[in-house]
Amino acid sequence: MDEFDNAAHNMAALTATIALYRALVRKGLMPRDEAMQILLDEAIANAIQTEALMQEPGVSKKTIEINRQCEEILKFIAEHL
User: Fold this and answer.
1) Do the Cβ atoms of 39 and 77 come closer than 8 Å?
2) In angstroms, what CA-CA distances link 27 with 16, 18, 23, 24?
3) Would you give the end-to-end CA distance of the chain in angstroms?
4) SS (H, E, C) 16-33
5) What is the domain extent for residue 13?
6) How many domains, in total, are found in the chain?
7) How do residues 9-37 score in pLDDT, each as one tens digit?
């Protein structure tokens, strides 16, 4: 897979996650605070993974930038859920 495929898969997974959390919160099955915390925890885990990737030789800057953008999107969504 190339970097475009990886980015597309990340975006699809992110979209599915958002839809799931919104549905759970709207139906009252999950408190909004818990959904926000889960998304923020995932953003932190992604940030740690990105830092580890930066230590590996040969990892492209596009991959790192995509991961960083994903972190920012997760944080934004958590704040506006």
Assistant:
1) yes
2) 17, 14, 6, 5
3) 32
4) HHHHHHHHHHHCCCCCHH
5) 3-80
6) 1
7) 777 887 888 888 889 999 999 999 998 89
